[in-house]
Amino acid sequence: MKARGVLASAALGAWLFGCNWVPLTDGGKGVHMARPAEVASCTSVGRTHAQTTDRVVLFARSDQKIQQELESLARNEAALMGGDAIAAAGPIERGRQTFDVYRCAKK
Question: What is the set of domains in the chain, with CATH numbers?
Answer without folding.
Answer: 2-103 (3.30.1660.10)
